[in-house]
Design a protein that fits this description.
This protein is of the alpha/beta class. It has eleven helices and twelve strands. It is 39% helix and 17% strand. The N and C termini lie far apart (48 Å).
């Protein structure tokens, strides 16, 4: 069964019931500001440089999305690594770290170890943290900072700023902001809210966002979610499709075989013709709604803190 953005609507709440819901709704405005700020930011990758992008959790998935976008734009070889898995001894022309808190242990340890090997740029929400001394340059997005433990607007705003530096990127970010404005308020299909399992798919840069959508559902709602490259889904993971389970594709779908396979298994296939960043906003809203339906507080997810500081 395929679900369009307007199918089986459930009216949105009259007002956000959590800090997370309120913050995620501000993303379109944050992205527009990031698109404007990109032209003035220093220390950003230059065309032709070999670049590595790193972070932890949500920030790592934003790194993956940007790396795929930059390579696809012909700007140079770009790799993305979790900070704890950065390959020792591999050399780059520039390294970009994404860290909302500026205190994440693995990111700080990595930047200190790499100091002097390449210019180090950190995107952060708080410049008055140890990342200030660990990096050579900072891009400060304090206006996109969050009170919530679960990241939404800071991470996507960091991606928006990096995306806006690519050829045609500013226009793409502004279009995404327009589509996200609708995604913030449109009714959510009932099948998305009542499901027992969600699998997110994406190709290219959208795969990083599919992974982030799955993470949001796990963090906020404690939900069973998975994420795969779209073409890999039928190489085994499709076996999980079935009644009460959702397969949600971000970005272009490679062919209609995906929908046929999911529908044949009795599952719900979701795909909207919108920018993957805007579709991520809709997934964030679903994560919050599912959390609340399960009597979970999306602002205080179990076992999570704003920043992972090892040994603290």
């Amino acid at each position: 069964m395929a679900v369009s953005p307007s199918a089986s609507p459930t009216p949105p709440p009259a007002a956000p019931g959590s800090r997370t819901a309120a913050e995620l709704a501000t993303q379109p405005a944050c992205w527009r500001r990031a698109a404007d700020a990109a032209a003035r930011a220093g220390g950003l990758p230059r065309a032709g440089e070999r670049v590595a992008v790193t972070g932890c959790g949500t920030s790592w998935f934003m790194a993956q999305a940007y790396a795929a976008l930059r390579e696809a734009a012909g700007q140079g070889e770009t790799d993305a690594f979790a900070a704890s898995e950065f390959p020792a001894g591999r050399r780059y022309d520039r390294i970009v770290a994404i860290t909302r808190s500026g205190t994440t242990t693995e990111v700080l340890d990595l930047l200190r170890a790499l100091r002097g090997t390449a210019p180090l740029l950190a995107l952060t929400a708080d410049p008055a943290t140890p990342v200030r001394d660990a990096a050579d340059a900072l891009a400060v997005l304090d206006w996109a900072d969050e009170e919530s433990v679960v990241q939404t607007r800071f991470a996507t705003t960091a991606l928006a700023l990096l995306r806006a530096t690519l050829p045609g990127g500013t226009d793409a970010v502004l279009r995404a902001a327009e589509e996200a404005t609708a995604a913030v308020t449109e009714p959510l299909p009932a099948a998305l809210l009542s499901a027992s399992q969600w699998t997110f798919l994406g190709r290219g840069w959208a795969y990083g966002l599919a992974q982030e959508a799955a993470l949001k559902m796990r963090e906020a709602a404690g939900a069973w979610t998975e994420a795969y490259p779209a073409m890999e889904y039928r190489h085994g993971p499709v076996a999980i499709a079935g009644p009460g389970r959702v397969t949600w594709a971000f970005g272009p779908v490679p062919d209609d075989g995906l929908e046929r396979a999911v529908s044949a298994a009795g599952g719900t296939f979701v795909h909207a013709d919108r920018d993957p960043m805007a579709e991520l906003v809709r997934a964030q809203r679903v994560a919050v709604a599912v959390a609340e339906s399960r009597d979970r507080d999306p602002d205080r997810p179990r076992g999570l803190t704003r920043s992972v500081v090892l040994g603290a």
